[in-house]
């Protein structure tokens, strides 16, 4: 009596297919929960990395700044930091009797980060602008001081290197500012040299204390750095202004991590339920295989609960092994589905805890399903109620309607402001997934009804189709299960890919409209007046644009060379038609701007003659006027260069030509992309879960084929003995499996594309900027899913025919 119980773990080896399916089921289940934990943690680290990339490296550690100090006090304070800088007030240093505006400064190792134009050594380093204006040469002595000029260096200009970024407001002059408001710095080689400056520079000094540190990888490291830094600054006790930009980065990263975690929770719960249902299916098939042994144990007095634990003895080890393998797979595949690879300390232990929880849940499901199966089989209790009677698709559809209401009212978040991350409304976020789930449930119910009535079908003139329908009708349960999981797989992959792609393109298009081009700089009016020519290296990639209140002044011939527009040919055609023939300047009306003549300061009377819904820089309100229609170029508010080149290439060309500029803007950095990335990361994981469900559907289909191997072998062998050609039998199996794949693919694709089409414009992290997110081109995704479906269909049909080709007729009849 004890032998069947003791031999149960080893008995699993007699059914290798059940063993492998058990391992695969909990592997996927463990992968889902572990990947969710790892993905959430990596999202926080990735958000922190994104924020760090936008923060000056030397400002990562809390820092101190102060001004209006005596020079001696500023020098003393600078010694408290390994990178303490001192700057005098702006004065008029005199070298040759031609005094001009300038200031002195010292920063450790500053001379090594400057570009020498002439000279060198350890004397005063004078910027080229001051040297040109004051006719300073190497060897000149500063009047009222013993300091001598030893080098002329190239002025610092935007964008500065990372070493200078924390000092950019001080060391980079504003060439368009007034005299005495901004200037370059004359550097001294030693901090003690500041004491040798003329007395007029001894007051009004400023100091900046920086504490260089290595970048951090996780939120825990960032919080530790922040706390240590604030403690250090507090211990210094200096009466300076504290700057702590790391705290805001940590807050944003924490918010992003919470948003991702909360958004993934409903999906993970649904996936776990699907996985547990798969465990139940495996247990039912195990009970069918062990029917004789279970009946023997039942007759000898074992109850349903004992037989349920009998299932755990045989399937428990594979289930535990599969869960642990799922954790290993989630960790190894982290770079393929997560936004980063840096994990918070202890994340793997948390993931292991969740994996063990779902493994315990799987074992509990195994016990309950085996107990229920033996109870129903041996005690012959009548079934009075079935879950399939409940209209689950209507329940899910009702939840989808509620989610749409939340989505249409609130958009992506319940509190959307330009200064903070949106707090994602999970109920609104689940709308497209609920639509897919409702479509899947409705499809399975209709399929079940159709198969129940399929015995009325008479397609014997097409025997392959008739046999396919008969086989489908004989396996209603596995068929509907495969279709349900298949629709969910296709739908989640499509929804996740669509929303993630839409967020990525929305960030790119919104930043393009906000800046106007890949890079822009403000330049003096001399370029617009024709006194200064643009460098030849910028021709074909750069255009000059004037900006007045609510209007842009553009050059129709070159505007589309640089500006970010969807249809360059159409925009070029409209701009070419803006030709002034009288006192009124024809204009292109943008979006919601008035369609009447309007007077804009610095421009002639503007009359709209054509219309566009949106335009770079203007968004959805404003006017566009041709440059030749504006006689008073000097009356335009400001002039800017727009370029399709990266900012560094644009500014380097201007620096080489000696053209001053200010107010630089880079399309890649002008907007905070973290809100977009948060949604993209969330739905990227949705697509990854869809891939997991697709694997589950494929495994379930192959399992259903393998379980019916003997039935297929008998029917196929008899059919071939009765004259059916092998090609007809092959076509029959292709039709059977292909019909399931086609139904799953068609319904999943339609439901996901329709729901994503409605949801994507509402899932906008920055609704105050245009354009709204748009559904991307999903044709390549659909093609790849069709190709993968064809592979699964062919493999499943080959498995079904394998038993027919190898069958021995005598053994089958026996």
Automatic annotation (TrEMBL):
The keyword Membrane applies. Keywords: Membrane, Transmembrane, Transmembrane helix. The keyword Transmembrane helix applies. The chain crosses the membrane at residues 263-286, 307-334, 346-372, 384-407, 427-451, 472-500, 681-705, 734-760, 780-801. It comes from the Bacteria. This is Permease.
